[in-house]
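Suppose you are handed a protein chain with no further information: no name, no annotation, nothing but its sequence. What can you learn? This example shows the usual starting point.
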Amino acid sequence: MDAKLRAVAIAGPGAPEGTAATTHRQPTPRSIATAEGAFSQEQVKVFEANMARAREADSANDENACKQAIADAERIFDQ
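A reasonable first move is to predict its three-dimensional structure. Written in structure tokens, the prediction is:
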């Protein structure tokens, strides 16, 4: 996810500085990509839910469910 967001953030157009830029926090690839409109908040939420599902499946040693959750998460960026 980070690699895809970083690529989108680097390739995307510049945007005006928002108020979040002045709060003394480092931007993340996700916040940059979201701010530039590369991904909607809904896409980010769905991705994070799929990754949580993958972590739960991994903890339960359910390899098939883990792989499915990761595949579902990756599809978010292919839309």
